[in-house]
Amino acid sequence: MAEDQEMDMGDDLEAIMLGGVGGVKKKGNILPVWGNEKTMNLNNMVLTNILQSPYYKVHLAEIRTYHEVLDQIYNHVNHLEPWERGSRKTSGQIGMCGGVRGVGTGGIVSSAFCLLYKLFTLKITRKQLNGLINHEDSPYIRGIGFMYIRFCQPPADLWEWLEPYLDDPEEVDPKAGTGDPMTIGMVVQQLLTRLDWYGTLFPRIPVPIQKQIDQKLKDKRRDQQNERFARRNEDDARREQMRRQSPDKDNRRRSVEMR
Q1: With the CA atoms of 175, 177, 182 and 187 taken in that order, what torsion angle do they form, in degrees rounded to the nearest 10?
Q2: Contact 216, 162 (CB under 8 A)
Q3: What is any one GO biological process for this UniProt entry (predicted)?
Q4: Less crowded by CB within 10 Å, the N or C end of the chain?
């Protein structure tokens, strides 16, 4: 544990000296918290179940470092839903009590959300958050990092944090019990464009910022499409040039042979 704390302090010092590392550049290593500084903007039902969870109250209470949490995610997380599969019944509930609203009968809260909130209580640094979203050992470590950004980072910073990962091809299955595989890029796009996430809600992005994000997504896709068209035209032109040159080469070869 002392070694982990020493590593964290070293990481923090390095990031401060560098002026910030990773997703949002040229900013200090201390992360801001947007919204509620106690709840992380989590749904009340989800947070209540986290705080009452034996896993959180007993096991995670002994964990004090970022690196220990990463080990827990690697060993115990296999989906990114707030509830364990089949533990929460929402049939027959409508409106504010419906499943999408995340209000109503509780269930067994997932290890993923317990660990997400544990990271929040540790007040992780900017460099540590970058370590989560760029981790090479598990897509679920990355997924929890992206959810951390969506739940408690300022909406004005979301595009800068998430845009570099919109085309990330690594695969992950966020659904409890599997059945909804997607790429990290698809996860990131959902975080930027949707409120609902498997039975809970992300905090609402202010309308002006959401409009900017939507426009930037359209612009990005348009630019990518234009690049594909340009590349295709270049390939077609190159093949046509090679086709035209081939008969000339054959004619020259036959002429030399006849001599």
Answers
A1: 20
A2: no
A3: mRNA splicing, via spliceosome
A4: C
Could you tell me the residue ranges of all domains in the chain? 2-204, 206-259
Q: What is the 8-class DSSP label of residue 169?
A: -
Q: What is the dihedral of CA 196, 198, 201, 207, to 10 degrees?
A: -20
Q: Are 21 and 133 in contact (CB under 8 A)?
A: no
* pTM as predicted: 0.77
Tell me the C-alpha distance between 133 and 202, whole Å: 18
CB 131 within 8 A of CB 13: no
The 8 Å CB, 24+ separation contacts for 119-124 are 119/66, 119/69, 119/144, 119/148, 120/40, 120/148, 120/151, 120/152, 122/64, 122/65, 122/66, 122/69, 123/31, 124/31, 124/66, 124/148
In angstroms, the first-to-last Cα distance of the chain is 84
Instruction: Say how many C-beta atoms besides its own lie within 10 A of residue 219's C-beta.
Output: 10
Please write the tens of the pLDDT for every residue from 58-110. Answer: 999 999 999 999 999 999 999 999 999 988 765 444 433 343 333 445 789 99
E strand or H helix that includes residue 152: helix 139-152
Distance CA 2, CA 8 (A): 10
Contact yes or no for 144/115 (Cβ under 8 A): yes
What does 238-256 look like in DSSP terms, one character per residue?
Answer: HHHHHHHHHHHHHHHHHHH
Tell me how far the alpha carbon of residue 83 is from its chain's centroid: 19
